[in-house]
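Notes from hallway chat w/ T.B., transcribed later so I don't forget. T.B. wanted the structure written out for a chain they're using in a teaching module, and asked if we could keep both sequence and structure tokens in one place. Agreed to drop them here.
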Amino acid sequence: MLAPTLWDRQANVVPLVRLLEAFLRAAPREISTGTHLTGVLGVFQKLAASRAQDHQGFFILNAFVECLPLEAWVDFLPSVWSVLFARLQSSKTVKFTKCLVVFISLLCCKHGPLTVVDSMAKVQPGIFEMLMKGVVCDAIPTVSGESEEKVRPDGAFPNLGTYVYCPRRTSPV
């Protein structure tokens, strides 16, 4: 399932991502303790590089946050940020930015803001503040959907100003 050739065909991507999410939810211990974690992250990296399939990569990351213990993949988090920041810099889209905001918010909700700040600082000190001011605050109004809005930064973190000023959305989108 982690063979790169399976992921080359676009028609395979959605079912494979769903299957991978199901494995992450059903057998998180087996995935986190074996060598599968590196392969799954390789799949994420491949999907994140694609403008057409980047959101599928975020489905995998969100399943990581929801299902795997942080200790199992915290060492990979700086690499994940590097992939995401490179894509953000080279090919920023509204869809990618929205997915990034949801991922950051979900990670903050599940493991605390310091996890996000500290892991980003390993890539580049001060990048969290730059990302919040330059990307996240602008993208908050684009976040929609029942489950996405539950973790949206302005609702999930009313004290986000502790880290950086980010105005709350005042009107519905």
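Follow-up for T.B.: The chain has two domains: 1-90, 92-173. Might be a good example for the class.
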